[in-house]
């Protein structure tokens, strides 16, 4: 039997390392393109202030970028380390986008990022702009492939189980790449990164303006951030994640759970604005409902119903029963690979094999499960409703606020009222908000995917490696200590760089070419 | 679907590409690891250390992608190998990852503060980030040659019976130290190309020479152990090289000295160990003659030879099992599906040349020795 303590600790470690990694990624995604915008203005106008602006935000980008790279190393290897059976079971499909990401995107971004920092004196301005653009392109292409991999876990298209190699194998690679869930996720995720970077640039600029420091620098940065941020915040919501929610049983379940919609409602379904969902009572107390909205968002029609949790559980029950038949046939094929009858039965029930495997949480052999156990297991396909309900509301609430926030910023910049103090204070306070929304977004997507590692294909608890509890505690404590220390260092270096400001470097280095060798230079900073 | 290349050929190509990726990693990120390991010894003052760090400052990030890509490519092309080895060598992997996580941060953060304590701390992190991965990679390769203690059940789930300390055997330590010596030689050779002439370069020559001699001795010792140490595995019974990837359908036995079988069967393979020795000798002569091209060329050839020797000796094995030879992973039973291997080959043929082109361009822009004088005038340096 599977050691569930190992599974839980593996999940904890994955959640910690992935959420931590994603503290740095959004800023990289967004700031890289903002650097391109800023540097383009420099190349077009040749005004030195824009070079200073690009270089200063580039310094902050660099401090953030290395931690994204460093923590990304863990992500690339953690599947093999902690999710060994998952890696075997779906590696034929899931490994490919990760490898292509390295080949096509990460190489691009990592090779050019060194030149971006070190090439200012060695390249013409237009060539340097090209380098910066390659970095931005690389980071964003990287997101494409990672989200294709993640999208496949949510909606496993283009693959089928092969009983001879006991794993999922690719049947249609184009379907994997053009997975609609992956596409929606890509737009949503990179837009959120752009919002994140805009809030960061806006907040730091607001800090300078409140202090009356570096005013020309800060106003220009603020203008770029408000325009970029407004476009991005609209894109996050309008081109949001909703479009993929009608595709699979688990995606439907996720939608029902985040809305705490226990029963199918006649079309078009209403939306529960707020309430207190209870897993125990299987209903939502004190719900405040808005008619129609849900049906419109989820199905983009007024006549299609949105399925509720009870109805989806009933579907799951039938699929588990069918999965048990698939499991039985597979065992027969394993015993006698040439058995044509068993292979025929397996083909018919193949798409429900994963549902049969869900029973392995309770019995070693799913064929021995009682009808009660099947019913109980069907209810285990419901993710944690209150957690999803609240994660969604926090994420969406911040998202809506961001639109108002950037609309205000854009308006103030357009009418040249950069020094509106109440807004500047708000902008400083708003700095953490996108990170909060983004992390809750991931919790929603991945916690909502439970109990599946790959929707309908492989339950999470089966995916783990055959490790021991002490091994897992060793790495969890190790990663937490290392990551915690690095987070402290990172934030302090950021604050240090912000305090020194954009002109520090010119004061240190400007007279250098003419200066005599005896000049006592302050310690140099990259 | 009919694919233009048959399954067995694709498996062979992907086995070779696995070697290309490992060699790419060792040739590029290898000298970064070597320079990191040498840092506290070849550079004494802060200026010297900054100069040494800046010899790899602009390019280590791109070089490191070979490692990441290696992980991704093993996942995509050899999912069994990815699943079994990284979960089996769990704590060793954790050590490597921790060291490699410290490295990017150390490069970037070290010179952001003037305090000598701060800088010295990150210098040692850079040393750890170079030395520990170099050692553990070698130890891991040693264990792969010995066979790892894992077995597969009928669901092809892997179970592992070893622990971290069990990885450190006399043979795997030879392999680990060989890896360190090889990469330190390569790092010293890089410094001979890239560092300004002066005391740092002289110290690099000294340590490079020691590492080169050690590499020769350890490589020979490893070869003797493979011949007389009682290691090796052999496939017995029928072999379906076009068949489904299912390790349990191959029969394997442990056979002392079997790692030398291939050299009898295919004498041309002797070219790999020969390059390993000749390259190291050329590298050493480059150190003595103060010739940067000889030193770097020699250490590169040696690295190619040593890594190829491991791969060719084991062929067609990739990861044999010491407790259940039946579970051993080979070129013919541990790959991805026919279609995935084909798609990944197309992607590699399209993108790898592009990567090589822009990487060469970046190196050419950054061409020239790093000097201590530049540290005072160039705000971009670490």
From TrEMBL, chain A:
Its main location: membrane. Keywords: Cell inner membrane, Cell membrane, Electron transport, Heme, Iron, Membrane, Metal-binding, Transmembrane, Transmembrane helix, Transport. It is a multi-pass membrane protein. The chain crosses the membrane at residues 20-44, 56-75, 95-120, 127-148, 191-210, 222-240, 394-415, 422-445, 472-495. InterPro entries: Cyt-d_ubiquinol_oxidase_su_1 (IPR002585). It is found in: Cell inner membrane. The keyword Cell division does not apply. Belongs to the cytochrome ubiquinol oxidase subunit 1 family. PANTHER family: CYTOCHROME BD-I UBIQUINOL OXIDASE SUBUNIT 1, CYTOCHROME D UBIQUINOL OXIDASE. This is Cytochrome bd oxidase subunit I. It comes from Brevundimonas intermedia.
From TrEMBL, chain B:
It is a multi-pass membrane protein. It holds the Pfam family Cyt_bd_oxida_II. Keywords: Cell membrane, Electron transport, Heme, Iron, Membrane, Metal-binding, Transmembrane, Transmembrane helix, Transport. The keyword Secreted does not apply. Signal peptide: none annotated. It comes from the Bacteria. The chain crosses the membrane at residues 12-43, 89-109, 121-145, 165-185, 206-228, 266-289, 301-319, 339-366. InterPro entries: Cyt-d_oxidase_su2. It is found in: Cell membrane. Belongs to the cytochrome ubiquinol oxidase subunit 2 family. This is Cytochrome d ubiquinol oxidase subunit II. It comes from Brevundimonas intermedia. The gene is cydB.
């Amino acid at each position: 039997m599977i050691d569930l303590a190992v599974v839980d600790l593996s999940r904890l470690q994955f959640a910690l390392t992935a959420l931590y990694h994603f503290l740095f990624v959004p800023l990289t995604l967004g700031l890289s393109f903002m650097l391109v915008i800023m540097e383009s203005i420099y190349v077009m106008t040749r005004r030195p202030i824009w070079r200073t602006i690009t270089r200063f935000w580039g310094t902050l980008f660099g401090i953030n970028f290395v931690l994204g790279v460093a923590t990304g190393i863990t992500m690339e290897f953690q599947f093999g380390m902690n999710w060994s059976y998952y890696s075997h079971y779906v590696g034929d499909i899931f490994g490919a986008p990760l490898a292509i990401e390295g080949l096509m995107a990460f190489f691009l971004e990592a090779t050019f990022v060194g030149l971006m920092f070190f090439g200012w004196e060695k390249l013409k301005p237009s060539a340097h702009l090209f380098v910066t653009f390659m970095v931005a392109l690389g980071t964003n292409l990287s997101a494409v492939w990672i989200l294709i991999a993640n999208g496949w876990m949510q909606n496993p298209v283009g693959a089928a189980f092969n009983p001879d190699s006991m794993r999922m194998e690719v049947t249609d690679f184009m379907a994997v790449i053009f997975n609609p869930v992956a596409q929606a996720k890509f737009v949503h995720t990179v837009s959120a990164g752009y919002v994140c970077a805009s809030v960061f640039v806006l907040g730091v600029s607001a800090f300078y303006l409140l202090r009356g420091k570096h005013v020309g620098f800060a106003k220009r940065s603020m203008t770029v951030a408000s325009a970029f941020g407004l476009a991005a915040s609209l894109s996050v919501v309008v081109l949001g994640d909703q479009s993929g929610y009608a595709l699979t049983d688990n995606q439907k379940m996720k939608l029902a759970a985040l809305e705490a919609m226990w029963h199918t409602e006649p079309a078009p379904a209403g939306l529960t604005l707020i309430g207190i969902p209870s897993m125990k009572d299987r209903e939502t107390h004190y719900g405040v409902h808005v008619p129609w909205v849900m049906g419109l968002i989820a199905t983009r029609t007024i006549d299609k119903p949105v399925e509720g949790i009870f109805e989806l559980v009933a579907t799951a029950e039938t699929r588990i029963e069918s999965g048990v038949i698939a499991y039985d046939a597979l065992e027969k094929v394993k015993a006698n690979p040439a058995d044509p009858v068993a292979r025929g039965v397996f083909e018919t029930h193949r798409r429900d094999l994963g549902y049969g495997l869900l029973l392995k949480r309770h019995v070693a052999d799913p064929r021995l499960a009682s009808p009660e156990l099947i019913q109980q297991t069907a209810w285990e396909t419901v993710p944690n409703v209150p957690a999803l309900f609240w994660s969604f509301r926090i994420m969406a609430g911040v998202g809506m606020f961001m639109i108002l926030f950037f609309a205000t910023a854009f308006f103030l910049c357009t009418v040249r009222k950069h020094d509106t103090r109440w807004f500047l204070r708000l902008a400083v306070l708003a700095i953490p908000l996108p990170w909060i929304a983004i992390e809750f977004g991931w919790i929603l997507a991945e916690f909502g995917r439970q109990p599946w590692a790959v929707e309908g294909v492989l339950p999470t608890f089966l995916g783990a490696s055959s490790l021991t509890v002490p091994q897992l505690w060793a790495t969890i404590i190790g990663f937490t200590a290392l990551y915690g220390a690095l987070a402290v260092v990172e934030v302090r270096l950021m604050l240090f760089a912000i305090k020194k400001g954009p002109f520090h470097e010119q004061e240190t280095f400007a007279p250098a070419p003419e200066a005599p060798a005896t000049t006592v230079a302050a310690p140099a900073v990259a | 679907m009919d694919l233009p290349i048959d399954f067995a050929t694709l498996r062979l190509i992907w086995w070779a590409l696995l070697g290309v990726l490992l060699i790419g990693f060792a040739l590029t990120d290898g000298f970064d690891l070597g320079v990191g390991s040498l840092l506290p010894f070849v550079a004494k003052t802060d200026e010297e250390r900054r100069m040494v760090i800046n010899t790899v400052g602009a390019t280590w990030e791109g070089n490191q992608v070979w490692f990441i890509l290696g992980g991704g490519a093993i996942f995509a092309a050899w999912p069994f190998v990815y699943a079994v080895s990284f979960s089996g060598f769990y704590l060793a992997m954790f050590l490597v990852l921790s060291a490699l996580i410290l490295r990017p941060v150390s490069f970037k953060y070290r010179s952001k503060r003037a305090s000598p304590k701060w800088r010295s701390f990150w210098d040692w992190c850079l040393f750890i980030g170079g030395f520990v991965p170099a050692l553990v990679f070698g130890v891991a390769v040693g264990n792969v040659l010995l066979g790892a203690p894992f077995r597969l059940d009928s669901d092809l789930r892997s179970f592992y019976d070893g622990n971290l300390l069990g990885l450190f055997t006399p043979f795997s330590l030879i392999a680990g130290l060989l890896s360190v010596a090889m990469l330190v030689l390569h790092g010293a050779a890089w410094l001979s190309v890239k560092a300004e002439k002066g005391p740092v370069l002289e110290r690099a020559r000294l340590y490079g020479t020691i590492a080169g001699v050690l590499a020769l001795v350890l490589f020979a010792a490893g070869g003797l152990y493979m011949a007389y140490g009682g290691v090796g595995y052999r496939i017995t019974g029928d072999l379906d090289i076009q068949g489904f990837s299912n390790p349990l359908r191959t029969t394997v036995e442990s056979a002392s000295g079997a790692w030398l079988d291939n050299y009898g069967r295919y004498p041309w393979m002797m070219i790999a160990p020969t390059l390993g020795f000749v390259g190291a000798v050329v590298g050493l002569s480059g150190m003595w003659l103060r010739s940067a091209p000889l030193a770097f060329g020699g250490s590169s050839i040696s690295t190619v030879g040593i890594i190829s020797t491991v791969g060719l000796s084991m062929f067609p094995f990739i990861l044999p099992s010491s407790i259940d030879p039946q579970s051993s992973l080979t070129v013919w039973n541990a790959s991805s599906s026919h279609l995935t291997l084909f798609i990944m080959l197309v992607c590699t043929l399209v993108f790898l040349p592009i990567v090589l082109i822009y990487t060469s361009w970046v190196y050419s822009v950054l061409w020239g020795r790093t000097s201590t004088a530049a540290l005072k005038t160039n705000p971009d340096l670490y």
